Amino acid sequence: MGSPLHLKAGPVHLRTLGKIPAVTDEPTPSADAVKAEMSDYYDRLASNSAAARSLDSGEDPESIAAADLARRYFQMRKMRAAERLGGFQPAQRLVEVGCATGPYTIRLSTEMGYRMTGVDISPRSIEIARELAVSLGLGDEIAYLQGDFERLECLDDGSHDGLVSFSCIRYVPDPLAALRQARRVVKPGGRVVVDFPNRFCPWFKHLKTRFGVNVHFEDRHFSAREVRDMFTDAGLESVRFTKLLFTPTITPAALLPAFKLLDLIGERTPGLKETAAIIMCSGQVPSA
Ligand SMILES: C[S@@+](CC[C@H](N)C(=O)[O-])C[C@H]1O[C@@H](n2cnc3c(N)ncnc32)[C@H](O)[C@@H]1O
User: What is the chain's Cα-based Rg?
Assistant: First the structure.
Protein backbone atom coordinates (compact mmCIF):
# COMPACT_ATOMS: atom_id res chain seq x y z
CA MET A 1 0.00 0.00 0.00
CA GLY A 2 3.14 2.23 -0.05
CA SER A 3 3.47 5.27 -2.23
CA PRO A 4 4.99 4.51 -5.63
CA LEU A 5 7.16 7.60 -5.33
CA HIS A 6 8.95 8.46 -2.18
CA LEU A 7 9.25 12.17 -1.66
CA LYS A 8 12.42 13.20 0.09
CA ALA A 9 12.14 12.70 3.84
CA GLY A 10 13.83 14.72 6.57
CA PRO A 11 13.94 18.36 7.53
CA VAL A 12 13.88 19.37 3.87
CA HIS A 13 10.06 19.38 4.06
CA LEU A 14 10.11 22.01 6.71
CA ARG A 15 12.21 24.20 4.47
CA THR A 16 10.02 23.58 1.45
CA LEU A 17 6.64 24.44 2.94
CA GLY A 18 4.70 25.80 -0.02
CA LYS A 19 7.07 24.23 -2.55
CA ILE A 20 7.07 20.81 -4.14
CA PRO A 21 9.82 18.67 -2.64
CA ALA A 22 12.10 16.78 -5.00
CA VAL A 23 11.46 13.15 -5.86
CA THR A 24 14.50 11.11 -4.86
CA ASP A 25 15.63 7.51 -4.91
CA GLU A 26 16.56 7.58 -1.22
CA PRO A 27 15.48 4.53 0.78
CA THR A 28 11.97 4.71 2.21
CA PRO A 29 12.18 5.81 5.86
CA SER A 30 10.77 3.65 8.64
CA ALA A 31 7.19 4.13 9.77
CA ASP A 32 8.41 5.64 13.04
CA ALA A 33 10.60 8.13 11.16
CA VAL A 34 7.63 9.12 8.96
CA LYS A 35 5.45 9.66 12.02
CA ALA A 36 8.12 11.69 13.81
CA GLU A 37 8.48 13.89 10.76
CA MET A 38 4.70 14.19 10.41
CA SER A 39 4.44 15.28 14.03
CA ASP A 40 7.18 17.91 13.62
CA TYR A 41 5.61 19.18 10.42
CA TYR A 42 2.18 19.62 11.97
CA ASP A 43 3.69 21.12 15.14
CA ARG A 44 5.13 23.79 12.92
CA LEU A 45 1.91 24.32 10.97
CA ALA A 46 -0.04 24.57 14.23
CA SER A 47 2.34 27.22 15.57
CA ASN A 48 1.71 29.27 12.42
CA SER A 49 -2.04 28.62 12.26
CA ALA A 50 -4.84 31.15 12.49
CA ALA A 51 -5.83 29.45 15.77
CA ALA A 52 -2.40 30.15 17.28
CA ARG A 53 -2.44 33.73 15.98
CA SER A 54 -5.87 34.37 17.47
CA LEU A 55 -4.67 33.09 20.84
CA ASP A 56 -1.57 35.31 20.67
CA SER A 57 -3.41 38.42 19.52
CA GLY A 58 -6.57 37.97 21.57
CA GLU A 59 -8.67 38.26 18.37
CA ASP A 60 -11.98 36.42 18.43
CA PRO A 61 -11.18 32.97 16.92
CA GLU A 62 -14.79 32.50 15.84
CA SER A 63 -14.81 35.66 13.75
CA ILE A 64 -11.48 34.72 12.16
CA ALA A 65 -12.89 31.30 11.24
CA ALA A 66 -16.19 32.78 10.02
CA ALA A 67 -14.35 34.77 7.34
CA ASP A 68 -13.09 31.53 5.81
CA LEU A 69 -16.32 30.72 3.96
CA ALA A 70 -15.11 28.10 1.47
CA ARG A 71 -13.24 26.14 4.15
CA ARG A 72 -16.27 26.23 6.46
CA TYR A 73 -18.57 25.10 3.65
CA PHE A 74 -16.29 22.13 2.83
CA GLN A 75 -15.92 21.23 6.51
CA MET A 76 -19.68 21.25 7.03
CA ARG A 77 -20.26 19.05 4.00
CA LYS A 78 -17.76 16.53 5.36
CA MET A 79 -19.29 16.65 8.83
CA ARG A 80 -22.85 16.21 7.54
CA ALA A 81 -21.73 13.37 5.25
CA ALA A 82 -19.99 11.68 8.21
CA GLU A 83 -23.08 12.14 10.37
CA ARG A 84 -25.28 10.54 7.70
CA LEU A 85 -22.89 7.66 6.97
CA GLY A 86 -22.27 7.04 10.68
CA GLY A 87 -25.95 7.30 11.64
CA PHE A 88 -24.73 9.50 14.52
CA GLN A 89 -27.14 11.32 16.85
CA PRO A 90 -26.34 14.57 18.70
CA ALA A 91 -25.18 14.05 22.31
CA GLN A 92 -23.33 10.88 21.34
CA ARG A 93 -19.64 10.71 22.24
CA LEU A 94 -17.45 10.86 19.13
CA VAL A 95 -13.70 10.91 18.72
CA GLU A 96 -12.06 12.75 15.84
CA VAL A 97 -8.58 11.44 14.97
CA GLY A 98 -6.24 13.87 13.20
CA CYS A 99 -8.06 16.81 14.75
CA ALA A 100 -5.14 19.28 14.27
CA THR A 101 -5.93 22.49 16.18
CA GLY A 102 -9.59 21.47 16.43
CA PRO A 103 -11.62 23.10 13.63
CA TYR A 104 -13.92 20.09 13.14
CA THR A 105 -13.98 19.03 16.79
CA ILE A 106 -15.17 22.46 17.84
CA ARG A 107 -17.90 22.62 15.19
CA LEU A 108 -19.05 19.05 15.87
CA SER A 109 -19.46 20.13 19.48
CA THR A 110 -20.92 23.63 19.17
CA GLU A 111 -22.91 23.44 15.91
CA MET A 112 -23.90 19.78 15.86
CA GLY A 113 -24.18 18.89 19.55
CA TYR A 114 -21.74 15.96 19.86
CA ARG A 115 -19.64 15.24 22.95
CA MET A 116 -16.16 15.32 21.48
CA THR A 117 -12.68 13.97 21.99
CA GLY A 118 -9.94 15.14 19.61
CA VAL A 119 -6.74 13.14 19.03
CA ASP A 120 -3.69 14.15 17.02
CA ILE A 121 -0.09 12.97 16.72
CA SER A 122 1.20 16.56 16.88
CA PRO A 123 1.64 17.71 20.50
CA ARG A 124 1.67 21.39 19.51
CA SER A 125 -1.65 21.01 17.67
CA ILE A 126 -3.20 19.44 20.76
CA GLU A 127 -1.80 22.19 22.98
CA ILE A 128 -3.30 24.91 20.77
CA ALA A 129 -6.60 23.03 20.40
CA ARG A 130 -6.88 22.85 24.21
CA GLU A 131 -6.09 26.55 24.64
CA LEU A 132 -8.57 27.45 21.94
CA ALA A 133 -11.30 25.34 23.53
CA VAL A 134 -10.69 27.07 26.87
CA SER A 135 -10.81 30.49 25.22
CA LEU A 136 -14.18 29.55 23.67
CA GLY A 137 -15.55 28.29 26.99
CA LEU A 138 -15.39 24.68 25.80
CA GLY A 139 -12.61 23.52 28.13
CA ASP A 140 -14.97 21.12 29.93
CA GLU A 141 -16.77 20.03 26.76
CA ILE A 142 -13.96 18.76 24.53
CA ALA A 143 -11.09 16.48 25.57
CA TYR A 144 -7.93 16.76 23.47
CA LEU A 145 -5.35 13.99 23.63
CA GLN A 146 -2.05 13.43 21.88
CA GLY A 147 -1.92 10.04 20.18
CA ASP A 148 -1.02 8.03 17.10
CA PHE A 149 -3.88 6.65 14.97
CA GLU A 150 -2.02 3.33 14.64
CA ARG A 151 -2.01 2.84 18.42
CA LEU A 152 -4.62 5.09 20.07
CA GLU A 153 -3.14 4.23 23.46
CA CYS A 154 -4.85 7.33 24.83
CA LEU A 155 -8.32 5.77 24.35
CA ASP A 156 -9.95 2.84 26.16
CA ASP A 157 -11.70 -0.02 24.40
CA GLY A 158 -15.30 0.83 23.46
CA SER A 159 -14.99 4.31 24.97
CA HIS A 160 -16.81 6.14 22.12
CA ASP A 161 -20.09 5.82 20.20
CA GLY A 162 -18.32 6.58 16.93
CA LEU A 163 -15.07 7.73 15.35
CA VAL A 164 -14.54 10.24 12.56
CA SER A 165 -11.34 11.18 10.79
CA PHE A 166 -10.88 13.70 8.00
CA SER A 167 -7.82 13.97 5.77
CA CYS A 168 -5.58 12.05 8.17
CA ILE A 169 -5.35 8.33 7.42
CA ARG A 170 -3.76 9.12 4.05
CA TYR A 171 -0.63 10.12 6.00
CA VAL A 172 -0.58 7.12 8.36
CA PRO A 173 2.00 4.50 7.34
CA ASP A 174 -0.24 1.54 8.25
CA PRO A 175 -3.87 2.52 7.59
CA LEU A 176 -5.13 -1.01 8.34
CA ALA A 177 -3.59 -0.85 11.85
CA ALA A 178 -5.32 2.52 12.28
CA LEU A 179 -8.71 1.08 11.26
CA ARG A 180 -8.23 -1.82 13.69
CA GLN A 181 -7.61 0.70 16.45
CA ALA A 182 -10.69 2.65 15.37
CA ARG A 183 -12.72 -0.54 15.69
CA ARG A 184 -11.27 -1.16 19.18
CA VAL A 185 -12.17 2.25 20.64
CA VAL A 186 -15.76 2.31 19.29
CA LYS A 187 -18.57 0.49 21.09
CA PRO A 188 -20.14 -2.56 19.46
CA GLY A 189 -22.78 -1.36 17.00
CA GLY A 190 -21.09 2.04 16.62
CA ARG A 191 -19.54 3.27 13.39
CA VAL A 192 -16.13 4.35 12.14
CA VAL A 193 -16.20 7.05 9.40
CA VAL A 194 -12.94 7.92 7.65
CA ASP A 195 -12.22 9.79 4.43
CA PHE A 196 -9.60 8.98 1.78
CA PRO A 197 -8.34 10.80 -1.34
CA ASN A 198 -9.66 9.07 -4.46
CA ARG A 199 -6.91 7.57 -6.63
CA PHE A 200 -9.04 8.25 -9.74
CA CYS A 201 -9.52 11.96 -9.13
CA PRO A 202 -7.68 13.95 -11.82
CA TRP A 203 -6.91 16.67 -9.28
CA PHE A 204 -4.47 14.41 -7.41
CA LYS A 205 -3.24 12.58 -10.49
CA HIS A 206 -2.58 15.38 -12.98
CA LEU A 207 -3.81 18.78 -11.97
CA LYS A 208 -2.44 19.52 -8.52
CA THR A 209 1.19 19.87 -9.58
CA ARG A 210 0.19 21.75 -12.74
CA PHE A 211 -1.49 24.35 -10.57
CA GLY A 212 1.66 24.52 -8.45
CA VAL A 213 -0.10 23.24 -5.34
CA ASN A 214 2.16 21.76 -2.71
CA VAL A 215 2.41 17.96 -2.77
CA HIS A 216 2.28 16.66 0.77
CA PHE A 217 5.02 14.18 1.69
CA GLU A 218 4.00 10.57 2.43
CA ASP A 219 0.54 11.14 0.97
CA ARG A 220 -1.34 8.17 -0.49
CA HIS A 221 -4.42 7.83 -2.67
CA PHE A 222 -6.89 4.95 -2.64
CA SER A 223 -9.52 3.27 -4.79
CA ALA A 224 -12.96 2.54 -3.36
CA ARG A 225 -12.18 -1.17 -3.61
CA GLU A 226 -8.98 -0.80 -1.53
CA VAL A 227 -10.88 1.18 1.06
CA ARG A 228 -13.66 -1.42 1.26
CA ASP A 229 -11.12 -4.25 1.61
CA MET A 230 -9.28 -2.44 4.40
CA PHE A 231 -12.50 -1.82 6.32
CA THR A 232 -13.44 -5.46 5.97
CA ASP A 233 -9.94 -6.65 6.99
CA ALA A 234 -10.17 -4.43 10.06
CA GLY A 235 -13.30 -6.36 11.08
CA LEU A 236 -15.76 -3.59 10.26
CA GLU A 237 -19.14 -4.57 8.82
CA SER A 238 -21.95 -3.08 6.69
CA VAL A 239 -19.43 -0.94 4.84
CA ARG A 240 -20.91 2.02 2.97
CA PHE A 241 -19.49 4.95 1.02
CA THR A 242 -20.15 8.37 -0.26
CA LYS A 243 -18.07 10.48 -2.63
CA LEU A 244 -17.56 14.21 -2.25
CA LEU A 245 -16.19 16.79 -4.64
CA PHE A 246 -13.45 19.00 -3.25
CA THR A 247 -13.94 22.73 -2.67
CA PRO A 248 -10.58 24.56 -2.77
CA THR A 249 -10.23 26.52 0.45
CA ILE A 250 -9.01 29.52 -1.54
CA THR A 251 -12.33 29.78 -3.42
CA PRO A 252 -13.51 33.41 -3.23
CA ALA A 253 -16.89 33.90 -1.55
CA ALA A 254 -18.37 35.18 -4.84
CA LEU A 255 -17.63 31.82 -6.54
CA LEU A 256 -18.99 29.66 -3.74
CA PRO A 257 -22.54 29.42 -5.16
CA ALA A 258 -21.05 28.00 -8.38
CA PHE A 259 -19.16 25.36 -6.37
CA LYS A 260 -22.33 24.51 -4.45
CA LEU A 261 -24.15 23.94 -7.74
CA LEU A 262 -21.26 21.83 -9.03
CA ASP A 263 -21.40 19.71 -5.85
CA LEU A 264 -25.14 19.24 -6.21
CA ILE A 265 -24.84 18.09 -9.82
CA GLY A 266 -21.43 16.38 -9.73
CA GLU A 267 -22.12 14.15 -6.77
CA ARG A 268 -25.24 12.80 -8.49
CA THR A 269 -23.76 12.33 -11.97
CA PRO A 270 -22.38 8.85 -12.76
CA GLY A 271 -18.91 9.15 -14.30
CA LEU A 272 -18.19 12.51 -12.68
CA LYS A 273 -19.00 11.08 -9.28
CA GLU A 274 -16.43 8.30 -9.77
CA THR A 275 -13.67 10.89 -10.09
CA ALA A 276 -14.72 12.91 -7.02
CA ALA A 277 -11.79 13.80 -4.76
CA ILE A 278 -13.00 12.31 -1.50
CA ILE A 279 -14.12 8.77 -0.72
CA MET A 280 -15.80 8.76 2.68
CA CYS A 281 -16.32 5.30 4.10
CA SER A 282 -18.20 3.98 7.10
CA GLY A 283 -18.08 0.56 8.76
CA GLN A 284 -19.85 -0.80 11.79
CA VAL A 285 -18.20 -2.40 14.80
CA PRO A 286 -19.76 -5.86 15.13
CA SER A 287 -22.27 -6.21 17.95
CA ALA A 288 -20.82 -8.18 20.86
C1 LIG B 1 -4.06 17.45 6.65
S2 LIG B 1 -4.22 17.56 8.39
C3 LIG B 1 -5.97 17.41 8.56
C4 LIG B 1 -6.50 18.17 9.74
C5 LIG B 1 -8.03 18.17 9.82
N6 LIG B 1 -8.54 16.85 10.11
C7 LIG B 1 -8.62 18.69 8.54
O8 LIG B 1 -9.18 17.91 7.75
O9 LIG B 1 -8.49 19.90 8.31
C10 LIG B 1 -3.66 15.96 8.94
C11 LIG B 1 -3.67 15.82 10.45
O12 LIG B 1 -3.44 14.44 10.77
C13 LIG B 1 -2.50 14.37 11.83
N14 LIG B 1 -1.84 13.07 11.76
C15 LIG B 1 -0.98 12.61 10.82
N16 LIG B 1 -0.58 11.36 11.12
C17 LIG B 1 -1.22 11.01 12.25
C18 LIG B 1 -1.21 9.83 13.06
N19 LIG B 1 -0.45 8.76 12.76
N20 LIG B 1 -1.99 9.81 14.16
C21 LIG B 1 -2.76 10.88 14.50
N22 LIG B 1 -2.78 12.03 13.78
C23 LIG B 1 -2.02 12.10 12.68
C24 LIG B 1 -1.57 15.54 11.58
O25 LIG B 1 -0.83 15.90 12.73
C26 LIG B 1 -2.57 16.62 11.13
O27 LIG B 1 -3.06 17.35 12.20
Answer: 18
Ligand 1 pocket test: pick from 121, 179, 196 the residue with the most ligand atoms within 8 Å of its Cβ. 121
Q: Are 89 and 244 in contact (CB under 8 A)?
A: no
What is the C-alpha to C-alpha distance for residues 126 and 147, in angstroms, rounded to an integer? 10
Beta-bridge mates of residue 60: none
**For the chain, where are the alpha helices, taking DSSP H only?**
12-15, 31-47, 50-57, 61-66, 69-86, 103-110, 123-135, 175-185, 202, 208-210, 224-233, 256-266
Assess whether the C-beta atom of 100 lies below 6 angstroms from ligand 1: yes
Please report, in tens digits, the pLDDT of each residue of the chain (288 residues total).
333 223 333 333 333 333 334 445 566 779 999 999 999 999 999 999 989 988 988 887 777 777 788 889 999 999 999 999 999 999 999 999 999 999 999 999 999 999 999 999 999 999 999 999 999 999 999 999 999 999 999 999 999 999 999 999 999 999 999 999 999 999 999 999 999 999 988 877 667 777 777 778 888 999 999 999 999 999 999 999 999 988 877 788 888 888 888 888 887 888 777 888 999 999 999 997
Ligand 1 center to 251 CA (angstroms):
22
CATH assignment of 12-284, among 3.40.50.360, 3.40.50.720, 3.40.50.2300, 3.40.50.150 = 3.40.50.150
Q: What CA–CA distances, in Å, run from 72 to 63, 144, 241?
A: 12, 21, 22
Rounded to the nearest angstrom, the distance between the alpha carbon of 219 and the centre of ligand 1 is 11
Whether 214 lines ligand 1, by a CB cut-off of 6 Å, is: no
Q: Which pTM was predicted?
A: 0.88
